[in-house]
Amino acid sequence: MNEQTTQPDNGRQDGSTLPESPPRLTHKTSVAAALARINITQMTLAVLVVIFLWQWIDGHRVIGDMQQQLAKKIAEMDGAGKANQMLLTQSQGEVRELSAKVATIESRYAEAQNQRAALEALYNDLSVSRDETALAEVEQMLLIAGQQLQLSSNVKAALIAMQSADTRLQRMDRPAFNGLRKAIGQDMDKLRALPSVDITGINLQLDNLIATVDELPLVYQQRVAKKEAVMQTATPKDETAWQMLLREIWQDAKQLVRIEDTGKADIPLLPPNQEFFLRENLKLRLLSARLALLSRDEDGFKQELKTAQLWTTRYFDGKSNEAMRMLAGLKKIAASPVSIELPDVSPSLQAVRNYRLTHENSPERGLAKKTARGNP
Known about the structure:
Layout: H1 2-14, H2 21-152, H3 155-172, H4 178-192, H5 199-212, H6 225-233, H7 241-255, H8 272-294, H9 298-315, H10 321-334, H11 346-360, H12 363-373
């Protein structure tokens, strides 16, 4: 600009005219405009360069940050990879341990299954055997009940045996046994409906009579106890020893012969040894009556008592208190009924036998036996 301003002065010094001054102004203006445009372009370029440099620097910085972050991420990923590798190794070890445990569990499970199958087979076998044992016990009890009724007519013993059989079935708690329990209950009702016979009371009375046999006086034995007591009370106080001796001799002499009306045409005279056998035979008659009582043999029972009454009346003193008590007891016992009409209790026994036969031939029992033996 200094050069442009000095050039007019030089023109003027060279003698140029004034009219040429307007073109110089125009040129100056165009140059200024050009310079202005150049300056704006340069400034724009400079700004763009600055912006580009700033973006390049910023991009470089961002790339550096990204590289740092990427390196950090790679380092983290490397650490994570190592950790994952360690976890993978640990997981593989745990998987191997778990596989070994699973194999052990599977083997134990298979063993448990085998044991379970064996236990089920054993249970089935025991179940079948338990039912068979229970039915055999029930059948035996019912047989005992029937024997008690048939052989000895012992209603009480038969009823106890049948109650034991019903209790045995009740403990099994099997609905299939309800029919058997019903049949047994019906037979027990038949026994409970029978009239009761006081076997125990009659037996005690026979024991008392047997104990009285040794106290029975014979018909020819003298009964002078009361007379002697009266004589002792009538003894004079001033009696001397010789008078007492003579009186006793006289009393003994009077007892040598005794005349008494017994009301019997023939009085049996028994020697001492035969007296013992008489009393023992009378006891045997009463014991035979007891056996007939226990066996419910009413005819034999009454016949033995009749014979005991006959012997008591014939051989013993019927006027004595012991003989009268004996005869009264024999008559009372002979009037007691000892025989009753027994019912038929075989339906319950037949029901148990039919049940056993039916289930012994059933397919379920055959299958249970095969399972118990381990057959497929």
